[in-house]
Design brief:
heterotrimer, A mainly alpha, B mainly alpha, C mainly alpha, B: mainly alpha, C: mainly alpha, about 70% helix, about 0% strand, globular
């Protein structure tokens, strides 16, 4: 077979998908058709490219990992935000195109992260000294967990921005600035491995989100903005105090200052201190997640935020809380995290999954309903993390991703009818299926994903979480009961989601204002298409995700277990901290060097380079 | 403690002067059942008092007084300097020239800004 | 020659002040023809502001130059010690003071002509007061300390009352003057008692005498030392405006022309902190006094907690942005006091406070400057309503304002965040966990009222019919804001060099 023929065969499926996507929709313009076709082809490419059996796993070679890739991904939006300031306010089209261009470029750049081998350890690591006198470094890297969250971020932000540009026509410059800054902050927080750096990015996200809610939000936007900002900041300052305490304890033991995650996670604190620090971190993350009873800011923020803000809030910002718990609480405070897991799991089930679902049931504002359903879904994520089993943690990560996609799509859909009717009350609608058939179809589909119907992406994650809860040792004798209770939450999800679907879409058209609502516009269709495609891709092929996170999840759980053992071995009344043994290996690549090690290295380097002509220098490492 | 006794005596005398004067005025005053208005009026050597005693003075008075006091007090520093000049030598002379120059500068400033002008 | 070089920051600003004074007195009034004026420098605010700013920048540059040359390599400097102690601590503070003064001068260059306060005395007074402040940070002797304190304060008294027609300004000036002289008198009493008890006027001698208490042959009375400590603390707490000695602050800031308020908030406070640190560590550095059980740390800790909490709670209830900034400056005094308390155990805390004050200086000067920029003649922006919608009408001013407020609130990546981080880190290093956590919790409360400004800037529209604040145009104010913004971002993202400078300041204060 000649190469040309083979190429045709290779390309045939993609072309077929492209044609199907482009030709199937009725009534559409060419742009919409092209976008849909492209989405279909790309979805196929994604599945084929990532399918584990399709190609032999690439040999782990650092040469594939361009070290500056993460810098590019994180700083592209930040630089873009700075550049936005110098673009003319009078030309919103230029601003919008520029922003979308940057965001899409960021998405493309982040796809190269998939070239990282799925092995444990840090990939695309980049380290530079930032403030040596404080032990602060610029240290970024990803593993199999943060990889997916980074991709989720770069994937949803362009969609959110694209949707917002359709509905928000005022102060476009500020809007573009906020989106880019937010994007940079979120990405930075996911990849930072230096606690100072993490805190900087963590706080950096607050401001643009505040603007998104407060400037373009609904009637009560200012109250919601305050609530969002003060809740989050209250949590994070205590985390800052705990970080400072950790740094100080590390210096007491090791003799030098460092804010590095790798070093600080070796620290075994005295029991009281460990519990207090764990509490501070937990508070910060629990507010962000949000966990019951700290969730009250979320419905307000969601309801008041504009559609784009809601999408990002649900899809990415909340994930920072769960990611933070996974990375920092479980990674650094294994003992307290283990000790508190059973209690917290009950809180997650009753306060999050069940109470969130019941609250959602009683809402008459659709957006508020979706917001409470977020509380319930995030309850599943936290439950999976508390369970501390491989299935539980992997399920939690899957739910994070899937919730980002499904709930993001739901908020987008709610935004669609809000743009048309300027209300979101369930009672205002009824029988929408008649005037808006495509919209209804997509809504029902996304609802299925949100409920977790098998075949859609929502199912796998929740199933794995419940499975992990059943088999969890951490949760002790109540694990089975907790698993049952969590499963009950899935039923409740079906109850509230389906009841709202029934009321809004089916039956006769009750309100004459709804009789002639236009169906999805081209912009909305294009924005929804990738989300819908992913719902199926991830629902049918979850191995795409799980195969790349196995090793990293194992590493996290190993660290978690080691932390617990070290904590338990510590004498009850120990007053001084100690350090666990170094394990070496890829997980400690980039470990911060003590000043003595640095000096020794510098001396070695100087000895090697000084007599440049000497033959001895040739063998010395550069 | 011995050395403080003169101070105490001085304080006692100083405070008693005031007390004695005010007390004497109270004891020795004329007690009349019926006080005519002229007697209660301010004593102005037979002239009719015009206006109240509490009147506003023009700030110029204060300005001139302030400037006077300022330079007057500064010259106090010249006395100890004059006594010690011989012992301190040329360095002290330079110092005092600088000091007087700065003072002069202030005076020039006050002059330019019209602090000495009466109109 | 080395002596002159060592003293050059002080000399530059002092001589510059005199020259500026002459220039002002002999200048030709720049007024419309036919207008009679007795003021020789009327209408020349722009030129004078530029002159003052240049002089102060020279002072700042010379401070850095002497710092780099190293004051310990200039043995001639011991000739002026202990009256003026030129060490890295002093130089760091004189840098901060010069920067704060220069920013205030630039702001005044735009503000005074805009609001019709054509009092050109402002600039010589500002410079002379800065000389006093610099000398205060260098004072190692009770006499210089008091003289410098008064030099600094006298200038400020008249700066506040500059707006002569306004009864509010008169009230502010009188209030500050009366309370200030009262506090100075109390402090003077403390200083006199200190001299009486120890027989020394230099702080090092006093420190030695205090250390000798309890050893055989010592005649120093512990009771007198304690009383004088309390009196000195009261006097200085007034100057740094710590609760409960803060009542004058909001009134004085509100009545004063905004650049004068800026100067008070940044320079007067920084200089007072410098002298507070030096007096406490050098004069009362004895282990028995500088310990958690007794002496000044617990008293200062109470002041710190009160300042942070009360000021933050009250600031949220203000309707005037200027008053809010006044209370915010009180709260920041509280944060800095946390560092002063930590200085009892960790020498690094001194550099933390120094760094904090530099960060605070640029952020506060920037915030006041942005407030100035938001109002124009006849419509000075004072209340929150005046700021409504500025984000739309003047995005640059709003952006700058937000940046400085974030710095004051302590959000990364700004100077204020790093300052707070440094101070609270040293507090945790010294085992002052409760103070650190109270400080951090307070910074959340503080975020509320900083946020409120942002809410008005970006999220509210002016009420229909209400007079709209028209933003002013001024190259001076814009320059000051740009300079302050560069400082804020630089100190927040690349504070390495400044941190090194500050950590040099720590070693020599003790």
């Amino acid at each position: 077979m000649s190469p040309a023929v083979r190429a045709v065969f290779e390309l045939a499926p993609y072309l077929a998908a492209l044609a199907a996507g482009a030709l199937l929709p009725r009534r559409s313009g060419w742009a919409e058709r092209a976008a849909l076709g492209l989405t279909a082809a790309l979805a196929l490419a994604l599945v084929r490219g990532l399918w584990p059996g399709a190609a032999p796993a690439p040999a782990p070679s650092p040469a594939l990992e361009w070290p500056h890739l993460l810098n590019v991904i994180v700083f592209l939006p930040l630089v873009g935000a700075a550049a936005i300031l110098f673009l003319p306010r009078q030309s919103p089209t230029l601003l919008r195109r520029f922003t979308l261009g940057i965001l899409v470029l960021d998405l493309v750049a982040s796809l190269f992260l998939l070239r990282a081998s799925p092995e444990r350890g840090w990939h695309f690591q980049f380290i530079a000294d930032w403030l040596p006198s404080f032990g602060i470094r610029y240290h970024v890297a990803i593993d199999g967990i943060s990889l997916w969250l980074v991709l989720l971020t770069t994937f949803t932000t362009p969609i959110a921005a694209f949707v917002s540009f359709g509905s928000l026509k005022t102060r476009v410059k500020d809007l573009c600035f906020s989106f880019l800054l937010l994007q940079g902050g979120m990405l930075g927080a996911f990849v930072a491995l230096d606690l100072f750096l993490f805190y900087v990015f963590w706080e950096l996200m607050l401001v643009p989100m505040l603007l998104l809610i407060g400037v373009w939000g609904g009637v009560e936007r200012i109250k919601a903005a305050y609530k969002f900002f003060l809740y989050t900041m209250a949590g994070s300052v205590l985390m800052l105090a705990a970080i400072l305490y950790l740094v100080w304890s590390h210096r007491e033991v090791a003799g030098y200052l460092t804010f590095d995650y790798l070093a600080l996670s070796r620290l075994v604190l005295p029991k009281t201190a460990a519990w207090l620090c764990f509490g501070a971190f937990l508070l910060a993350f629990a507010i962000k997640v949000p966990m019951f009873p700290l969730h009250t800011w979320l419905p307000d923020a969601h309801v008041q935020a504009p559609t784009g803000g809601s999408i990002l809030l649900a899809a990415v910002l909340l994930k920072l809380g769960t990611y933070g718990y996974l990375r920092f609480c479980m990674g650094m405070f294994g003992g307290p995290a283990w000790g508190a897991a059973a209690t917290l799991a009950s809180v997650a089930i009753f306060g999050g999954i069940l109470y969130g679902a019941l609250c959602a049931w009683k809402q008459d504002d659709i957006k508020r309903l979706v917001a409470y359903s977020s509380v319930a879904h995030l309850g599943f994520v936290m439950l999976g993390l508390f369970a501390g089993t491989r299935a539980g943690v992997e399920g939690a990560i899957l739910v994070m991703i899937n919730h980002g996609i499904a709930t993001g799509a739901l908020f987008l859909l709610v935004g669609v009818i809000y743009d048309r009717r300027h209300t979101r009350m369930v009672r205002e609608f009824g029988g929408l299926a008649r005037p808006m058939p495509i919209y209804t179809a997509v809504f029902v589909l996304v609802t299925m994903a949100s409920i977790g119907v098998p075949g859609t992406n929502g199912f796998v994650g929740e199933f794995m979480v419940i499975l992990g809860t059943f088999t969890s040792m951490t949760l002790g004798s109540n694990a089975q009961m907790q698993g049952v209770a969590a499963a009950f939450g899935v039923i409740l999800a079906a109850v509230y989601m389906l009841s709202v679907v029934q009321k809004v879409f089916f039956g006769p058209v009750t309100n004459p204002k709804n009789a002639h609502l236009p169906d999805l516009s081209a912009r909305e269709t294009i924005a929804l298409a990738p989300l819908v495609a992913l719902i199926f891709v991830l629902g049918l092929f979850p191995r795409i995700l799980t195969d790349r996170m196995h090793d990293s999840v194992d590493a996290v759980l190993e660290r978690y277990r080691e932390g617990r053992l070290a904590h338990q071995e510590l004498p009850e009344h120990a007053t001084t901290a100690r350090l666990r043994d170094r394990r070496g290996g890829p997980l400690e690549r980039g470990y911060p060097k003590s000043p003595e090690e640095r000096e020794a290295e510098a001396a070695k380097l100087a000895a090697a380079t000084a007599p440049a002509s000497a033959p001895a220098a040739q063998g010395a490492p550069q | 403690m011995q050395s403080w006794i003169p101070v105490l005596v001085y304080l006692a005398i100083a405070s008693s002067v005031g007390v004695v004067m005010l007390g004497a005025a109270r004891v020795l005053r004329v007690r009349a059942r019926h006080v005519p208005p002229t007697r209660a009026a301010t004593y102005e050597c037979g002239e009719e008092p015009a206006g109240k005693a509490w009147i506003r003075f023009h700030p110029r008075y204060y300005l001139v007084a302030l400037v006077f006091v300022l330079f007057d007090v500064e010259t106090v520093f010249l006395a100890p300097w004059a006594l010690a000049t011989r012992a301190l030598g040329g360095y002290a002379v330079v110092e005092m020239v600088v000091f007087v120059a700065v003072l002069l500068l202030g005076w020039v400033y006050a002059w330019r800004k019209g602090a000495l002008r009466w109109q | 020659m080395n002596l002159l070089f060592g003293l050059s920051p002080f000399l530059a600003v002092g001589v510059g002040a005199l020259l500026l004074m002459l220039a002002e007195a002999f200048g030709k009034p720049n007024v419309a023809p036919g207008v009679e004026t007795t003021d020789a420098g009327a209408g020349r605010a722009g030129e004078l502001a530029l002159g003052a700013a240049v002089i102060l920048v020279i002072g700042a540059v010379l401070s850095v130059a002497v710092w780099v040359a190293g004051p310990e390599s200039l043995p001639e400097l011991t000739q002026v010690a202990p009256h003026l102690v030129i060490d890295k601590f002093t130089l760091f503070f004189s840098f901060t003071l010069c920067v704060g003064g220069a920013l205030a001068a630039l702001l005044a260059g735009g503000y005074l002509p805009e609001h019709g306060i054509d009092r050109s005395e402002f600039f010589p007074l500002l410079l002379l007061s800065t000389v006093g402040a610099m000398a205060l940070s260098a004072a190692g002797d009770l006499l210089t300390l008091f003289v410098a304190l008064e030099t600094m304060s006298l200038g400020v008294y008249s700066l506040i009352g500059l707006r002569r027609g306004s009864p509010r300004a008169a009230e502010a000036a009188l209030k500050y003057f009366l309370l200030g002289s009262f506090a100075a008198a109390i402090m003077l009493f403390g200083l006199a008692l200190l001299y009486g008890a120890t027989g020394h006027t230099d702080l090092a001698g006093i420190g030695a005498a205090v250390r000798s208490i309890g050893s055989p042959g010592s005649t120093v009375s512990a009771g007198k030392i304690l009383i004088s400590l309390v009196l000195v603390l009261v006097g200085l707490a007034f100057k740094v405006s710590a609760v409960p000695f803060h009542q004058w602050t909001p009134d004085a800031y509100e009545g004063a022309p905004t650049p004068a308020a800026t100067y008070m908030a940044v320079a007067v406070k920084s200089a007072a902190f410098a002298v507070l640190l030096r007096v406490l560590l050098v004069g009362f550095g004895d282990e028995r006094l500088a310990s958690w059980g007794a002496g000044w740390p617990p008293a200062l800790a109470v002041l710190a907690v009160l300042s942070m909490t009360v000021a933050n709670l009250v600031a949220g209830r203000q309707e005037s942005v200027k008053r809010m900034l006044a209370y915010s400056s009180i709260a920041h005094a509280g944060y800095a006091l946390v560092g002063v308390v930590a200085a009892m155990r960790s020498p690094e805390a001194v550099s933390a406070v120094a760094f904090y004050l530099l960060a605070y200086t640029v952020s506060t000067a920037g915030a006041f400057g942005a407030l100035i920029l938001c109002g124009s003649r006849g419509a000075e922006a004072v209340s929150y309503e005046d700021l409504a919608g500025v984000g739309k009408r003047h995005p640059a001013a709003a952006l700058a304002f937000s940046l400085f407020l974030f710095s004051l609130a302590g959000l990364p990546p700004t100077a204020g965040f790093f300052g707070k981080l440094y101070v609270f880190r040293t507090a945790i290093d010294s085992g002052l966990y409760t103070l650190a956590i109270l400080g951090l919790v307070n910074s959340v409360i503080g975020a509320y009222y900083y946020l409120r400004v942002m809410v008005y800037l970006y999220m509210r529209e002016p009420a229909p019919g209400a007079p709209r604040a028209v933003t002013m145009r001024s190259g001076f104010v814009a320059t000051a804001l740009v300079a302050a913004a560069i400082f804020v971002l630089l100190l927040g993202m690349a504070p390495g060099f400044t941190l090194d400078m500050a950590s040099g300041a720590a070693l020599t204060a003790r």
